[in-house]
Design a protein that fits this description.
The complex is a heterodimer of chains A (318) and B (294).
Chain A (H helix, E strand, L loop, with lengths): L1 H11 L2 H54 L2 H6 L3 E2 L6 E2 L2 H32 L2 H16 L2 H19 L9 H24 L3 H9 L4 H30 L2 H6 L17 H10 L7 H30 L5
Antiparallel strand pairs in A: 1-2
Helix pairs in contact in A: 2-12, 4-7, 4-9, 5-7, 6-7, 7-9, 8-9, 9-12, 11-12
Chain B lengths: L5 H44 L5 H5 L12 H32 L4 H13 L4 H15 L6 H25 L3 H9 L4 H30 L2 H6 L19 H11 L5 H31 L4
Helix pairs in contact in B: 1-11, 3-6, 3-8, 3-10, 5-6, 6-8, 7-8, 8-11, 10-11
The chains are: A mainly alpha (318), B mainly alpha (294).
Chain lengths: 318, 294
């Protein structure tokens, strides 16, 4: 019955009108269908815009800095006295702090992460792995400020009770804690690389009488080496950019030194100190954080690129 | 003549086997060492801060006096931040993921955006802080407000949200979309009615995990000049605010002056970790309850 009514109703309208109506809704629909991808493209373009904005702000403001401070002074001077009467802006003290804390972190995270990866991929049963891996990844989910608090209020006093020469703020303690934080990164990326080594290669080794250990070290690790190295490089990049742990636990002494017991400032901690201080916009001190940040950005960017290259170039396809 | 010295062979084999079984436990120990540190960290923080958590601490205003200090302002600030971050990252992240997965032709532009997102994920958070300081705080003149902080954190986690949303959309089987096209649906209708609802649980899981990364971030907020002062509770997007990590940061620094501040920092850490725990639980719940498997 209803269909009849409808057909009667439509019959009252002229066919022309109907077609017109249909056309107009269709064209609206068409326009809508065409607009949506454009809008979504703009959303996706935000990420490109972010990169451009980062590069633009860092470079233009760093240019202001380098108009006042020469490149040679910035990269070769071992003096960093931004607030003194006769200020000097040498990057090397910050670089030594960053490199030292990164090295300490990698001394911890490298071996432990790799050993954990070997255990998880070669020794652990499925059940144990499924239990341990998420627990290990909890370490990466703890906010860095919490690690900073831990380094400052627990690890440093602990180190001082063993080794009294260590200063109240020092580079050793945040380095160690940073290492702990990075373990899951090294472990899970290396483990991924090792599990992707095909079982036939392991079986070949077992068939020749190799133990699990020998298989892991002489067969699996060489086969997965590109992934493992890439995970190390990514971890280094992460450690270079890490901020809060070193800001809290390593103090703000700007010495060019490699003594782990001393207080030392990293590039990231310098940015925090200056930007949370009273440096007015337009002063050389203010612009210096852009120069430091540009250096930091370049370093981490190159590291990430390197990691990707290594992972791609040396990957053996099985 | 004997070519093989049996005793020597046995010795050698025993040594290799023993080395294998010893190192197995060394490797296990290495795996557990991180967890041991995590346990120490948690136990110590809880034992130091738990006694300081009471109703007044959670609902009270900030105060110089450690006995009276409360962190309601910081908790509210963190909630306001979350609102801004959720809004921007969900819209931008989902939109970008839909574009990259379902609309974009796999060509130069696509791979440019994709590489760019991968690179952004590796940029240190403090650099985002500097970007936020320059663009949002100074150039757009938002000041150290909720909006400036939220936008900065949004940009920080956007790459993570995009990548996880892309993975979620990729996991939707093509057959579903084809059925929809077969019924005469347009592309956008198919995306809106098929792809998005199917992928939504995974998208939300990924976004909530990214959100929990954002609210623990401190470095960008420090650079933006977020204070931990006696300021009124934030009530809008253009209000000045403080957030939990900032509060922890300042109390840890000031512990050199007033010892009890360290305990307050520990107590705030417990609250922050609790919030992260709740967020992660929600994410896991959504994943287990709603995620489709094909």
């Amino acid at each position: 019955m209803t269909t009849k009514n409808v057909s009667v109703n439509t019959a009252n309208l002229s066919t022309k009108q109907l077609m017109k109506e249909k056309k107009s809704t269709a064209s609206f629909k068409n326009v809508f269908e065409k607009i949506v991808p454009t809008i979504l493209f703009l959303f996706a373009a935000v990420s490109v815009l972010t990169t451009i904005a980062i590069l633009y702000t860092l470079i233009t403001e760093a240019v202001h800095f380098f108009q006042r401070v020469s490149l040679t002074e910035f990269f070769t001077s071992t003096n960093l006295k931004p607030l003194s009467q006769n200020p000097s802006f040498g990057l090397l003290p910050l670089l030594s702090g960053t490199l030292l804390s990164t090295m300490i972190a990698m001394v911890v995270a490298g071996p432990i992460g790799l050993m954990a990866a070997i255990y998880l991929s070669e020794y652990a049963s499925d059940r144990v792995r499924k239990l341990l891996k998420p627990m290990l990844e909890l370490l990466a989910g703890i906010p860095t400020i919490v690690y900073g608090f831990f380094a400052f209020t627990f690890v440093t006093p602990l180190l001082r009770s063993i080794w009294p020469e260590i200063e109240l703020t020092n580079i050793l303690s945040p380095g160690l804690v940073m290492g702990i934080m990075i373990i899951p990164m090294v472990a899970s990326l290396s483990e991924d690389a090792m599990t992707s080594v095909p079982n036939t290669m392991r079986e070949g080794a077992y068939g020749l009488g190799a133990t699990k250990l020998e298989t892991a070290i002489k067969v699996v690790i060489p086969a997965a080496i590109s992934g493992i190295v890439a995970s190390f490089v990514l971890a280094i990049s992460r450690a270079i950019g890490e901020t809060m742990i070193v800001t809290i636990a390593s103090g703000s002494t700007k010495n060019f030194s490699f003594d782990v017991t001393e207080s030392m400032q990293t590039m990231t901690a310098y940015i925090v100190e200056v930007s949370s201080g009273d440096a007015a916009a337009g002063t050389t001190v203010y612009y210096s954080i852009y120069a430091v940040a540009l250096t930091l950005f370049t370093m981490t960017f190159l590291m990430n690129l390197l990691a990707k290259k290594i992972a791609r170039r040396f990957r053996e396809e099985y | 003549m004997q070519y093989i010295d049996r005793l020597q062979v046995r010795k050698r084999i025993n040594f290799r086997l023993r080395l294998n079984s010893i190192l197995k436990y060394v490797f296990l120990g290495a795996t557990l060492s991180g967890l041991v540190v995590l346990a120490i960290l948690l136990i110590r923080t809880v034992s130091q801060g738990f006694a300081w958590i009471d109703w007044n601490f959670i609902t009270g205003h900030l105060s110089m006096d450690p006995e009276k200090a409360g962190i309601m302002g910081a908790i509210l600030g963190t909630f306001w931040l979350m609102l801004v971050v959720i809004f921007f990252t969900l819209i931008l992240g989902m939109g970008a993921a839909i574009y990259l997965e379902l609309y974009a032709k796999k060509g130069r532009v696509h791979s440019l955006i994709q590489t760019n997102i991968a690179n952004l994920a590796g940029v240190p958070s403090i650099v985002y802080g500097i970007l936020g300081l320059t663009v949002f705080v100074r150039l757009m003149d938002f000041g150290s407000t909720v909006l400036a902080g939220g936008l900065t954190l949004s940009l920080l986690i956007l790459p993570i949200v995009i990548v996880s949303s892309q993975e979620a959309l990729r996991a939707v089987p093509q057959t579903l979309g084809e059925a929809s096209y077969g019924l005469g649906a347009s592309k956008w209708q198919t995306i809106r009615n098929i792809d998005l609802p199917t992928a939504l649980p995974s998208i939300l899981t990924g976004s909530i995990l990214a959100l929990s990364r954002a609210i623990g971030e401190t470095a960008p907020l420090v650079v933006l000049g977020i204070p931990a002062l006696l300021i009124p509770f934030p009530g809008g997007f253009m209000d000045r605010f403080t957030a939990l990590p900032m509060q922890i940061y300042y109390w840890t620094l000031d512990a050199a002056l007033v010892e009890e501040y360290a305990n307050l920092a520990a107590a705030s850490i417990i609250i922050l970790l609790l919030m992260l725990f709740i967020l992660n639980s929600i994410a896991i719940y959504i994943r287990n309850k709603f995620q489709h498997r094909f």
